[in-house]
Amino acid sequence: MDNKRRKIETFKVAIGILIVIFIGIQFIQPLRNQSTEVTSVHIERLYPVPQNVKGILTQSCYDCHSNNTRYPWYSRIQPGAWYMAKHVKKGKEELNFSDFGTYSIRKQRSKFRSMSNQVNDGTMPLSSYTLIHRNAILTEEEKKILIQWFDTMTDSLK
Description:
Elements: H1 2-25, H2 43-46, H3 51-60, H4 62-65, H5 80-94, H6 105-121, H7 127-130, H8 140-156
């Protein structure tokens, strides 16, 4: 019986330590990716973006691929906030609509072509994002709208 009591006490101490660690990490928050400024190199300042395309980009792309992420309530809970910050950082490294004008014309053309292909084959937006953000799932009509605009932009940059 004494061995069982020791195991229970050890278990309680371990749970207590885990709770303290979980609470402690809540105070270590990553930097937020939020800017209300639309810079002169933002894609919307460089190219005519139809309203329907802008709406789709805002809803399904900008959270990970711009300088302004909309943060839901759960983004303040660790370790999820760290995962989200890492995900946004990686997304912006691959494509950042806020800095699109800093890309060479060749790179812009390549990005438009890549976006068209990724939307067409369903790899963007990521399923890990749409799992929680159900409103970011692209309908067939939205895919057609985006692909047509991406292809038009690709052709216009030749």
